[in-house]
Design brief:
This protein is of the alpha/beta class and 274 residues long. It contains nine helices and ten strands. Strands 1, 4, 5, 6, 7, 8, 9 and 10 form an eight-stranded parallel β-sheet that branches. The longest helix is centred in the last third of the chain and has 19 residues. The chain binds zinc ion. Zinc ion (ZN) binds next to strand 5.
Length: 274
């Protein structure tokens, strides 16, 4: 029987040791732990994908009648040519162990650049960063309001450099609100303006979105789709399997206390039960 492809999206926030007085230590993962986790995935035969690559491979396996060869995943007509060439670049990843991991970082903390990038590069691992577009080069204002320590955000130069190195930049609204608490117009502005601001900065399409706090409903989902995104991530636990809702992509959250043993268990469990 052909092996079923397994797509796992991991969720991180900040790379580094959490400050003693941090209100949300779970958002931190120490560099040492992060490096071990990436190495483990690499050794276990996972290929690392950005989310746009994951979408192309997912379509290839599940939407185009994959029968062990042939079939090209396309997103839509305008992107047909682009994705054909993208898939060609991904063919090295097809027909191997069919284990795929997409590393995602929500918010756009500078620590991803200062602490995470080198580790990703060492393992040749790709990633996606969901940036709060109104706080580029600023601080984590939404967290500070909730009593958390100040944390510097990525600046424009760092975002551009990461994009150049193959990190995908996704949108995470302008100010990091609970989208379901806003009017539809306000939510639409938060979603579409963050996409546009990042596209203007990077000179490239921004294809994926993550809901702040994992907070979404049907209206919010429709707004994200209307803005032209290919998909959006939530914070519920799970893997991306056949029939997955691309506007509610489940992930596996990694926290400050996720040691390698727990990490392996999470990865294993999520593959079996979700
Ligand atoms: Zn967030």
């Amino acid at each position: 029987m052909a092996k079923i492809p397994k797509f796992i999206i991991l969720l991180y926030h900040k790379i580094g040791k959490y400050p003693q007085n941090s209100k949300f230590p779970g958002l931190y993962v120490e560099e040492r732990d992060f490096a071990r986790q990436i190495k483990y995935l690499s050794d276990a035969g996972y290929a690392f994908l950005t989310l746009s690559e994951l979408k192309i491979l997912y379509d290839f396996y599940y939407k185009d009648g994959y029968k062990g060869g042939g079939g090209v995943g396309v997103i839509n007509d305008e992107n047909k040519r682009h994705n054909k060439s993208a898939l060609n670049n991904l063919t090295g990843l097809i027909n191997e162990r069919k284990r795929y991991a997409a590393i995602t970082f929500d918010d756009g903390s500078k620590s991803v650049y200062s602490g995470g990038l080198k580790i990703l590069e060492d393992e040749g691992a790709k990633a996606t960063v969901f940036m709060v577009s109104g706080l580029i080069g600023g601080m984590n204002e939404w967290d500070i309001k909730n009593g958390e320590n100040g944390d510097e955000m990525l600046n424009a130069l760092e975002l551009k450099e990461m994009a150049k190195l193959g990190v995908e930049i996704g949108a995470h609204t302008v100010t990091h609100p609970h989208l379901t608490r806003l009017s539809a117009d306000e939510a639409y502005a938060e979603i579409s303006s963050s996409k546009k601001a990042l596209e203007d900065l990077l000179g490239a399409d921004v294809n994926f979105f993550a809901y702040p706090y994992g907070d979404y409903n049907e209206t919010v989902k429709e707004l994200v789709e209307k803005c032209g995104f290919y998909g959006a991530c939530i914070t519920k636990t799970g893997i991306v399997k056949k029939g997955a809702d691309f506007f509610a992509l489940k992930r596996v959250a990694i926290r400050h206390n996720t040691d390698l043993f727990k990490f392996k268990r999470k990865i294993c469990k999520v593959g079996l039960f979700y």
